[in-house]
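We give this protein:

***
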Amino acid sequence: MNKFLFSTTLLLMIACASAIKAQNNSATYNYSVIKSNDWVIPRNDTVDYTFNEYLGQKALLMKRKYGNYKAGTPIYPRNLNFKDGVIELDIAWPGTKGGYVGFAFRIKDAHHYETVYFRPESSGTINAIQYMPEKKADFNWWDYENDKYQAKATLPMHTWFHVKAIVKGSTVQVFVNNETKPSLVYNHLDSSLKSGSVGYWFGNSSDSAYKNLIVKAFKR
């Protein structure tokens, strides 16, 4: 075997090994179909849900019966343990006022998680995207109003938009509608929220719609 052929073969072997290693170091979970018994989906005197269509797409539709500015509700699979990885989902806001819709990650329970949520009514402003950790019974968004927790983005008012988030260590990057540049980069994720589930998030809105949650978890 000549030196050129040997070098080419060696490079191909290294590339294949790297690809296999990368594949083996992650696990992908597809939650496009939600099995209710495997999820935490609140249904009580203030919150309800249905599986139906929104704008011709099958979706999880959440409804809040009473407005509450302290409301924050994660909806998530029970048996997922996520620390770092890639989160993708589609979100829409069907309501008429107070759109607060998003996703949550490293979810320990209903009151301990990190969230990134979107305000379609604030599209194009610094208030369009908000990051915050939640560690109290009430969703205390007023403690995280500083601009460092927020970012500008162009969001549709009532139609579907795609979200991709890359979570690694203390950093989250959030991309909207397949843009190549992240709309939000936050480098100080809460160190006390180390791992947990991933799911949808529903704030002080009358309605919200979600579909196609895909989670790629990096193995430790």
The first strand starts at residue 26 and ends at 31. Residues 71 and 204 are 5 Å apart (CA to CA). Residues 4-23 have pLDDT under 50 and may be disordered.
